[in-house]
Amino acid sequence: MSLKTHLLSVFRGIFVFHHRSLEFRAKIFAAMLLAKKEIVNDDYKKLIKITKEIYKNDNARVGILINTVKEYVKMAETYKNFSLDTLLKDIDKELKVHKRYASKINFEHLRMLISSEDEDDALVQQRVYEFFVNEVKIYSN
What is the DSSP string of the chain? Predict the structure, then answer.
């Protein structure tokens, strides 16, 4: 991780007002990863590929998004009161307030994160995916 990316991540709170959609995307991706029993390095490689598609030619945003996802994952692993359910409730609340965020959910990208190695992981991730499909139906109108 570059020093610039690290500093931007550390001071992310200062920039949140300007990067709310980035923060929202990070929550979406973190939820998909947290639906797995174990997150492996390959998951982050897929995520890097996805974020490079989203933020073409903007490596700073790619780095910030990846680090933000990792922060959410670490929070879920560290704190008992922060979990996949907590994150999904937070996503729902944000969509109620900012309906335009529904357009930020790219289902092709989410399908790329669904496990092909573990049926149980894939099932839970599919349920999270379906939650997002339903959220988009509700808040896209």
Answer: --HHHHHHHHTHHHHGGGGHHHHHHHHHHHHHHHTSSS--HHHHHHHHHHHHHHTTT-HHHHHHHHHHHHHHHHHHHH-TT--HHHHHHHHHHHHHH-GGGGGG--HHHHHHHS-SS-HHHHHHHHHHHHHHHHHHHHH--
Model confidence, pTM: 0.87
CB 60, CB 5: distance < 8 Å: yes
User: Which pair of tokens denotes residue 90?
Assistant: 């937070």
The tokens of 113 are what?
A: 């994160």
pLDDT, tens digit, 9 for 90 and up, residues 102-131: 999 999 999 999 999 999 999 999 999 999
